[in-house]
Amino acid sequence: MTTGIRGIGMTAMGVSNDLSDLATRLDEIETTGLTFVELPLYDLDCVIAGRIYSTQLQAVKKITSSRRLTYTAHGPHPINFFDDVFRLPRHFEVLKASMEAAAELGAVHYVVHAGMMPLVQSMGLEAAYERQREWLTRGGDLAKSLGLMLCVENIFGDYHGNIHTPTPKRLARELAVINHSHVWATLDVGHAFIETDFHGLDLVSECAELAPYALHVHMHDNFGRQDDVSMYTESERLAFGHGDLHLPMGMGGIDWNTLFGTCVFPKEVIFNIELARRYWHWRQDCVDAMKALQPKIKTNAA
């Protein structure tokens, strides 16, 4: 293993609400040889109206705790500290409950999405960034108390230019200002590809700016093309190469060799594969592709 990498994992995608296939999903991931799993707390019903639902959480824990796996967790996608001020306490309420659930499940990282909002004039955007810094700092304090690392994920706006979200480089600037021991980044390379394509930015240089803060990395592939044509099926989207496809690495257009030849990650970084449930049958191919890339990864470990 490359010096400084803590581990490689995969998200347990597509778990049924009654958890009847969670054990099977974990089996399938373990069979690939991975020892880390990202739990999709956004889809496990462990939080109801901003409070932990103990019955469901304990049912999940009963399945996960018997494994020799290390867990990370992805919180609910709608958590958004760019939102209107009156709703921010509700976002934090959901963040807090889901972080507590993650800690109960033994997760070491908790992933939350960066903010997004309708495009407005610069003063409005900067006010949103100020709100996000304040609430992520509170989240960092909570993460520290729970033994978690809060990892803020770069996403992409809509495909028509109506939504603003930080580019990887801007997210790096924000994390530098926050400067919290328990607030880091999740570099989602696939999301970065779509966002940089829309704005005409360079993917590798943008990722290189965020990489030193990226204690967590989401791995999947796409073609960096906007999903701006009406499609009837996912197969049609694949045929056009449009949107956030979550393909195995090497099946899309990301130049992984150049990216990993340029980026330097923090020591103890965790790489997590986010493979779409539609392509779950390619999971071993995806893991093999990740392992082939692994020797190229650089960290700041001595």
Provide structural commentary:
By secondary structure, this protein is of the alpha/beta class. It has a single domain (5-296), classed as TIM Barrel (Alpha-Beta Barrel), CATH 3.20.20.150. It is built from ten helices and twelve strands. It has helices at 22-31, 54-64, 88-104, 122-146, 168-178, 189-199, 203-210, 234-240, 256-262, 283-293, and strands at residues 5-11, 36-40, 47-48, 51-52, 70-74, 107-113, 117-118, 149-153, 163-164, 183-188, 214-219, 269-273. The longest helix is centred in the middle third of the chain and has 25 residues, at 122-146. The mean pLDDT is 97.
Sequence-ordered SSE layout with sheet pairings:
Elements: E1 5-11, H1 22-31, E2 36-40, E3 47-48, E4 51-52, H2 54-64, E5 70-74, H3 88-104, E6 107-113, E7 117-118, H4 122-146, E8 149-153, E9 163-164, H5 168-178, E10 183-188, H6 189-199, H7 203-210, E11 214-219, H8 234-240, H9 256-262, E12 269-273, H10 283-293
Helix pairs in contact: 3-4, 4-5, 5-7
Pattern of helices and strands: EHEEEHEHEEHEEHEHHEHHEH
Helix content: 25-40%
Tell me the total number of β-strands: 12
Oligomeric state, counting identical vs distinct chains: single chain
Q: Quick one: biggest sheet?
A: 8 strands, parallel, barrel
Mean pLDDT: 97
Strand content: 15-25%
Cα separation of the termini: 14 Å
**Which CATH class applies here?**
Alpha Beta
Give the overall shape: globular
Instruction: Tell me the CATH topology.
Output: TIM Barrel
* Total separate domains: 1
| Order of strands in the sheet with most strands | 1-2-5-6-8-10-11-12
Helical stretch count?
Answer: 10
- Quickly give the CATH architecture: Alpha-Beta Barrel
Low-confidence stretches: none
- Which secondary-structure class do the elements indicate? alpha/beta
- The fourth-level CATH homologous superfamily is Divalent-metal-dependent TIM barrel enzymes
Integer-rounded radius of gyration:
18 Å
